[in-house]
Structure to design on (126 residues):
């Protein structure tokens, strides 16, 4: 199956990797941080603000590929500070109130000033 690179100006772009790749009906979203593309700045200093923006960015990428957050089948959250996990869960409950995709949490290995969270996900469309 051919790979289709998904790109949208509605989410942060990085020159070294694609925002997402779609193969068949599966979309693989790269680790996405909580940068607000309208300002180019982090959404805020809290884990909740950055998680919310990161999920909105993931949503924009999925939509560019013809999917929604409800199509997520796996979410991988990378945290700078593991003690922020409860704040992430709080925001995830807003975005996934009913159908909660499987997820895992790891320690973010790259220390970038101010970045508290990066979220990657896999989604499958019908």
């Amino acid at each position: 199956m051919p790979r289709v690179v998904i790109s949208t100006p509605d989410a942060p772009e990085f020159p070294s990797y694609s925002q997402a790749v779609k193969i068949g009906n599966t979309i693989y979203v790269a680790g996405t941080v909580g940068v607000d593309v309208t300002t180019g700045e982090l959404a805020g200093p809290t884990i909740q603000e950055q998680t919310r923006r990161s999920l909105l960015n993931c949503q924009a990428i999925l939509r560019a590929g013809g999917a929604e957050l409800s199509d997520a089948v796996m979410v991988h959250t990378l945290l700078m500070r593991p003690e922020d996990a409860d704040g992430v869960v709080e925001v995830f409950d807003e975005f996934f109130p009913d159908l909660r995709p499987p997820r895992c949490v790891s320690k973010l290995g790259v220390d970038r000033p101010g970045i508290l969270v990066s979220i990657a996900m896999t989604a499958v469309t019908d």
Remarks:
- The longest helix spans residues 47-64.
- DSSP finds two helices and eight strands in the chain.
